[in-house]
Amino acid sequence: MTDHDFIGARVEDLPSPVVLIDLPTVQRNIAAMAAHADKLDVALRPHWKTTKSAQVAGLQLEAGASGHTVATAQEAVALADAGFTDIFWAYPTVGPYRVAAALDLAQRTRLIVGPDSVAAARPLATAATERGIEVEVRLEVDTGVNRTGVEPEAALEVAKELSRMTGIHLEGIFTHEGHVQGVGTDHALRERTGIAAGALLAEVAEEIRTGGIGLDSVSVGSTAGVQSAPTVAGITEARPGTYIYGDENQVFIGTIASDETAMTVLSRVISVERSGPVLIDAGIKAMSSDASMHGDGRIGTVPSGPGVVVAGHEEHGFLRGSVGLRVGDLVSIRPNHACGVTNMHSQVFAVENGLVVDRWATLGRH
């Protein structure tokens, strides 16, 4: 049976484990986020790593997205190869492969890249100058996630250095306020944390502009922070990703409702011989091993009941809490983190009312 034979099939006839994406939910999530961005008067540039799907990218643009965000060279190339023409590669292009990929992409599409230092930007600037082109860049600013990003108090001096380099053009600044998710279930604290991140980035932008450097974009990016960080005056763009599929971590902390989650991993019971957990065919190769915000080590949750996939081997999941299951029974699992699951699978199936309506290839995998 070929992949195309599955179009129109019942989900229970698919080989398991398999990723199912509820198409009506995706469509609602796209429309809701587009309306949110419109209300705030900010551009919406969704992070593509959540879906890695050309079909979904097209739906987002049709709903008004200004372009897409990616994290890797593979994602950037795949998105450009699929015909998309406005890409923000929100990652330092460090190393010869990334520099070469950025130069090639910049000559066939609009590309913006995201260094956080002079050291990260210089090889790209030098190579672009040698090729006789100019690549747009955004300076990443750390607003609290403590990952990549220049410290806010040093941003002006770095921006000055970048603005003096040939081969690159400083288009704006950006941040990933991922620490908003780390706040957990306290909604008020999440909101304050997101607003603080947005305000800090806006302050940095104003300082850079006062220093004589123009900036077009001041961009924030996270699903957990999208209801707060972009509300700050001076923010021009939002880059949420997980909102489109949802996952258990977002449901747990309260940023996404359970009925707004579109992704499930359909699994089958393969053994009930143990006195404890039931064994299913969705292990870490199907679910990924991304950490759970529940803090209990689970790799997935049964949304229709109390079941929890407490652990996984490569091809085996250990399911506790679901009773009365027999070998061959189907179990729908909501993963901890949608983006990691997408990257584990070569394809996902879009479904509606229990039937397969489309097959979406996963592009730009690592």
Identify the CATH class of the largest domain: Alpha Beta
Order of H and E elements: EHEHEHEHEHEHEHHEEHEEHEEEEHEE
Morphology: globular
| CATH architecture annotation name of the largest domain | Alpha-Beta Barrel
What is the SS-derived class? alpha/beta
Reading side by side through the largest sheet, how are the strands ordered? 2-9-8-7-6-5-4-3
Let me know the largest β-sheet.
8 strands, parallel
Count of individual helical segments = 11
**CATH-defined topology of the largest domain:** TIM Barrel
**Alpha-carbon distance between the two ends:** 27 Å
| Overall pLDDT level | 97
Number of strands: 17
Question: CATH homologous superfamily of the largest domain - what is it?
Answer: Alanine racemase
Rg to the nearest angstrom? 21 Å
* Number of discrete domains: 2
- Helical proportion? 25-40%
pLDDT < 50 stretches = none
Q: DSSP strand (E) fraction?
A: 15-25%
Keywords: Lyase
Family: Belongs to the DSD1 family.
Protein name: D-serine deaminase-like pyridoxal phosphate-dependent protein
Pfam family, one: D-ser_dehydrat
